[in-house]
Design goal:
Elements: E1 2-9, H1 14-24, E2 29-37, E3 40-47, H2 50-59, E4 63-68, E5 70-75, H3 80-90, E6 95-104, E7 107-114, H4 117-125
Antiparallel strand pairs: 1-3, 1-4, 2-3, 5-7, 6-7
């Protein structure tokens, strides 16, 4: 699974433009995170069709990048994410982004975009 990062100008309607572009070609957004960083905005997406999403955003003139993510299912209770974050930290894994992508039956699914997927996977197995 991949995360797509879209850099946009910080302006009213930038998020709508990205979502319209994806919706217009039938790409469903599974998870999204958006932040303002001064004059810019950063939108991070996980979609059900990464190839089409990348293509439509690139053709639309958006500045994008993508990278592999790791998904982890945890019990939905205090401290569970802290355990995962600590495992990654102890192993020296740099985390670029993290967010919740779903809840089911007392569990929570978390997306983590590490600098190194291989190192993150090794750390999480410990």
């Amino acid at each position: 699974m991949k995360e797509i990062t879209v850099m946009v100008e910080n302006r009213v309607g930038a998020l709508a433009d990205v979502c319209d572009a994806l919706g217009g070609v039938g790409v469903n957004i599974k998870a999204i995170s958006a932040q303002r960083l001064g004059e810019a905005g950063v939108i991070r997406l996980i979609t059900e069709d990464e190839t089409t999403a990348r293509n439509v955003l690139e053709k639309g003139g958006f500045r994008i990048s993508s990278g592999d993510i790791v998904t982890v299912k945890l019990r939905d209770r205090p401290g569970e994410l802290a355990k995962i974050a600590r495992k990654l930290a102890v192993s020296g894994v740099d985390v670029e982004s993290v967010y919740i992508i779903g809840h089911t039956n007392g569990d929570v699914e978390v997306a983590i975009k590490p600098q190194s997927v291989r190192e993150a996977m090794q750390a999480l197995k410990k």
